[in-house]
Amino acid sequence: MTDATDIPAEARADWGALSQLPGNPIMWVLIISELLVFGAFFLAFGVARLFDPATFHSGQALLDVRMGGLNTLILVTSGWMAAKAVQARVGQAVPQSRRWLAGAMALGCAFLVVKGMEYADKLALGHTLESDTFFTLFYLMTGFHALHVVMGLAVLAIVGWKNSVENMETGAAFWHMVDLIWLILFPIVYLVR
Amino acid sequence: MTDKAIEDNAAWSRRLTRAWVLLVALTLVSLGAVLGFGATEAGIAAAAVALAASFYKARLVLDHFLDLRRAEGGWRGVFAAMLAVILGGLMATYVAAGMMG
What we know:
Chain A is mostly helical. Chain A has helices at about 10, 25-50, 55-60, 65-90, 95-125, 135-160, 165-190. Chain A has a single domain, classed as Up-down Bundle (Four Helix Bundle (Hemerythrin (Met), subunit A)), CATH 1.20.120.80. Chain B is mostly helical. Chain B has one domain (about 5-100). Chain B is flat and about 55 Å long. The relative contact order of chain B is 0.11. The model of chain B has no long low-confidence stretch (mean pLDDT about 90). Chains A and B meet through helix 2, helix 3, helix 4 and helix 7 of A and helix 2, helix 3 and helix 4 of B.
């Protein structure tokens, strides 16, 4: 990301403490907001599990840890590719930057395919949004995250087209935020059982 | 001069790739810990490994992909504290559920 010191003082003077962060302050506001919203969601999941452990235990036992693990590997690799796209763009290698970005987007699509397969499997077994508290939270949390992946793909497509360094950095930052949320969601929903 | 100007392209590449390798390795460690303890109930040790791995993975993404390592002030601490509250809170509810069960 562009260093805070790269931005003229007058342009970042109004951002207060946010001016100390690298890159676009608005994106950091979004990242902090998303962490707080998802964080509240995650803690609510833990508290709900505390009061109904049997339902959560049986629900979590139905999840395929390997599918969740595969999606984690897909998303961290996609994040790395997005970071490489920014690096290439900073180095003026525009075509190379677009190739890295296309790779990141392809893996983002793969994440959605795996997620879709997982949903189809659970729905075929009769586990819907209304089955029980666990599946309500499972679909809401993972669905809300998947919606962010879709939005992230759109953002990456736009910054790949209008690919100034600042746009690339901001778009990649959104994608890393989506990655970050999944890295917390995955162990909470799939692993801690 | 910025840190990015100081850091040459090869060093930047190595840093990003190192972060990615660590992210993959930590994911495999947490998967191994949970699958090693059985698919239905992970147990407190596996849960602690998975949540600790999540903490370090989130910090890797923040520090290297989002470049938080270059932030001034106490921002790294603020994000570490947010992650600790979320993941520590989840660990606490998990332990409490075990004690109540």
